[in-house]
């Protein structure tokens, strides 16, 4: 018998949650999750996964987003499956504490590959001169647009990763190019464009199926609807819808953010730019969903104030 006094086996901190491995033995793990408000927790099926998975809510309010619709879970509620057969996403409506029990170990999946990739993405933010919230903004806006468009839970899960990691390939771009205060030369621009392919290579190198799928989206997020983007000049429906969403969100964030070489545009001007480039640079359905989502958000803010 193992006795722990005011101690935890292991604890890791992610951007939106804390995970504590409370007990582990014979392949079974008990993990305490503390989810910050707005955090997303995904459970996904795997061909080789036969585990019993059990979640019980200790405190807070959690939305269970599945193919059957949304269900609100509160303290005392629980869900379980053996094995999991569909992509499920849980969204913390408040700060949430829960216990997660699995009969197959997976704690170090979070603490190793995914955490390493998230940390690398934050390094890119600093290297590229963005604020520390850039990746988080792109992820959150992308997920909101995807919900408006009705993407399935499995697509939402991969988009959640890809949006946060969209510029991870820039870690390989020389600083003198990435932070050049003036326009890039043709040669420099060709190097800059490689960041999408480099991002795919980095994520594919993890050998995790979910990150490999995210890498495919990352590589496409600078493709254009009219086929004039990069790296593969894909057009229209050839571009994954997740990549098309990131393209619109990333462009909006870039236009409205202050950089060392220019001041950001007013939000209404950025809206006009998206509208004007609908059907050329951007997927029209994505632009419409983004503008609808932002307009509804702005309206709610006006009512609150």
TrEMBL record:
Superkingdom in the source lineage: Bacteria
Cited InterPro entries: HD/PDEase_dom, HD_GYP_dom, HDIG_dom, RmlC_Cupin_sf
Pfam families named in the record: HD_5
Domain HD-GYP residue range list: 109-305
Organism of this sequence: Sporosarcina siberiensis
Classification via NCBIfam families: HDIG
Protein name in the entry: HD domain-containing phosphohydrolase
